[in-house]
Amino acid sequence: MPRIIVCLKQAIDVSQLKADPATGKLIMTSVPQKISDFDKNALEEAVRLKEKFGGEILTVTVSVEDAKTSVREALAMGADRGYLITDKALEFSDTLATSIVLAEAVKKVGQCDLILCGEASIDGFSAQVGPRMAELLNIPVITYARKITLENNTVIAERVLEDRYETVKTKTPAIITVTKEINEPRIPSLMSIMKASKKEIIYWTLEDLDIPVNKVGELGSGIKIIDILAPKTERKKIVIEGESPVEVAEKLVKALIQEGVVGR
Amino acid sequence: MSEHRDVWVFSENYDLMLELLTAGNPLAADRSSKLVAVLIGSEIEEKAHELLKYGADKVLVADYPKLKDFQIEKYLGILTSLTKKNKPEILLIGSTKNGKELASRLATRLETGCTPDCSTITIDERGQLLTKRIVYSGNAVVTATYLKKPQIATIPHRAFEKLEPREREGEITKVEVTVEEPQVELVGTNRMEVANVRIEDARIVVCGGRGIEKKEDFKPLQELAQLLGGQTSNTRPLAEDRKWFTGWVGLSGKKIKPTVYIGCGISGMIQHIAGMRDSQVVVAVNKDPEAAIFEVADYIIVGNLYEIVPAIVEALKKALKN
Fold first, then answer.
1. Residue B223 and residue B294 in one domain
2. Fewer CB within 10 Å, N- or C-terminus of chain B?
């Protein structure tokens, strides 16, 4: 029976972001947090595999701030146990540092058949952590999977690339990053939410994982963020009005011709 | 003094590699170093010479029959040994999905950082690489720099235009490599149904959203696109939820920057905006006057797309005749 580890990131809900109109700086305080969208797809896939084959689902989350609510939600969706690595020293960690922490946590959680991640996180969208962990753990990785089939110790997946789908296979244990189209994550029932409150969350620090502080934070990172600003969009925002669709259409065509972008 | 030097570029996509040369050129000039292209494949000597014409000072060529088809682990092994040996200061990799996986894994092997999907790359006053890219589903631009070397960045298609080729002096060096056995085996490939012109290359894009009720209703959009010599595309829900199409424009799909973008029945979810933000002129048609897409539009039409789009088609026909 497969033992599956799902890596969950708690990310800010990007749809709730606002920028200070004067400075263009984003207002980050009080932005709600949630499980990153595609990581939820990864968890849903794990739950579906468990429904088919049995086994166990463990989630691993690395976070500067407490991410208990997100882990509870994962337990309600069907994970059996959650591991939460929270440490102040993790602040300013990039994907290089974060992957090291996740990989060490996965090792400590122990033997597993599959490690599932989202294709990318909804905030940073770097799509790096899955492939980086594969290198650190020295196991195969399949990225951008929209379908996963598990047969004993072989996993077959369909990858979504720019212009084609690729069917690939590899031996377990392997890391698979999934796309949104793989499934529709369930919304946990009240019953499962109540049951989840009895499930265990295990808290680890960097010390528990034997990770020296110079491997995380700014010291352990390859990238340093200088600023995060709202993008400038200078659009004309000209409202075209008219008595009829015909009039509106003619005004638009005239404007586009004047801009020199059509009719040449 | 750092022992790392030179700007390297690599993409398994040859066209993208030419664009990377454009991106790398000013960086190499700024650092008074060489622009080096890494070319991997089989029977690629002609291409190696061509890369010099597009701006490379030097081309490292790994030319072996078994490298004919791209396979991440084979190529990754070669790039790992070449970068460990030669220590580039900056490494630009083409931001295809495979390229991004490759870059992440290479950065891990070299214990360094990697910035994905950079739209702008420059050298700061300390001589460090400075990158800008869109994050938070298109809601923010992050500026970042590096703390380790090599400094790796991935560059998406069309962020830079390839240069006009011209005869230039340059060095071509054949490298000997050992090819790693891949851990992941390719069983089969299915082509997606794609239009003849890639949507990223279309000069005009007419894009449909959830305001379009049936797939057949895309017809006026296609007619409009055809008339303008452009292409149609769509938002993610039309591909993912309604299964009408395979691809989409957006954060997780195609990033486009056509001369004209015409959005029809598109509310303007931030994820979609992230894919079309760089369009030159944006026209939006939506019946909801509060639609978010109007915030990023040059021409705003509040109205029923079922009436407006055919009217634009007619108005265009009339205007183009004159």
1. yes
2. N
pTM: 0.84
Q: Is residue B179 part of a domain?
A: no
Chain A residues with CB inside 8 Å of B291's CB?
none
Identify which of B98, B240, B282 has the shortest CB distance to residue A180: B240
Domain boundary among B174, B208, B243: B174
Question: Contact B97/A261, CB-based, under 8 Å?
Answer: no
**Average pLDDT of chain B?**
93
Do B235 and B156 have their domain in common?
Answer: no
Residue B187 covered by a domain: no
CB distance A135–B311 less than 8 Å?
Answer: no
CATH number reported for the structural domain that contains residue B313 in this entry: 3.40.50.1220
Query: B160 and B297 in one domain?
Result: no
Asked which of B14-28, B52-66, B187-201 is least confident by mean pLDDT, the reply is B187-201
Q: What are phi and psi of A48, to 5 degrees?
A: -65, -40
Q: Do B303 and A224 touch (CB under 8 A)?
A: no
Measure the CA angle with vertex B247, ends A15 and B186; round to 5°. Answer: 115
**Residue A124 scores a pLDDT above 70:** yes
Any CB–CB contact under 8 A between A170 and chain B?
A: yes
In a domain, B223, yes or no: yes
Distance from CA of B176 to the nearest CA of A (A): 24
Q: Is A136 helix (H, G, I), strand (E, B) or coil?
A: helix
CA B127 to CA B31: how far, in whole Å?
7
Interface of A with B in 212-231 (CB under 8 A): 218, 221-231
CATH number, domain containing residue B130? 3.40.50.620
**Residue B1's pLDDT band (boundaries 50, 70, 90)?**
very low
What value does the mean pLDDT of chain A take?
Answer: 94
Q: Is the pLDDT of residue B12 over 60?
A: yes
Cβ separation A14–B191 shorter than 8 A: no
Model confidence pLDDT, tens digit, residues B92-133: 999 999 999 999 999 999 999 999 999 899 999 999 999 999
pLDDT higher than threshold 70 for residue B2: no
How far apart CA B274 and CA B261 sit, in angstroms, is 13
Can you give B255-288 as a three-state secondary structure string? CCCCCEEEEECCCCCHHHHHHHCCCCEEEEEECC
User: Do B97 and B204 fall into the same domain?
Assistant: no
In this structure, the answer to whether residues B163 and B216 fall within a common structural domain is: no
My answer on whether B227 and B102 are in the same domain is no
B240 pLDDT above the threshold of 90? no
B185 strand-pairing partners: A169
Domains identified in chain B, total number: 2
- B104 and B246 together in one domain: no
Contact B270 A14 (CB under 8 A): yes
Containing structural domain, residue B168? 7-174
Among candidates B112, B184, B303 on the partner chain, residue whose Cβ is nearest the Cβ of A248: B303
- Is residue A150's pLDDT more than 90? yes
Residue at B180 is within a domain: no
A140 lies within 8 A of chain B by CB: yes
Q: Which percentage of chain B shows pLDDT scores above 70? A: 98
* Letter string b/e over residues A76-104, b meaning 16 or more CB atoms within 10 A of that residue's CB: bbbbbbbbbbbbebbebbbbbbbbbbbbb
Same structural domain, B131 and B224: no
What secondary structure does DSSP assign to B239-260, as a single string?
A: HHTS-S-S--BSTTSB----SE
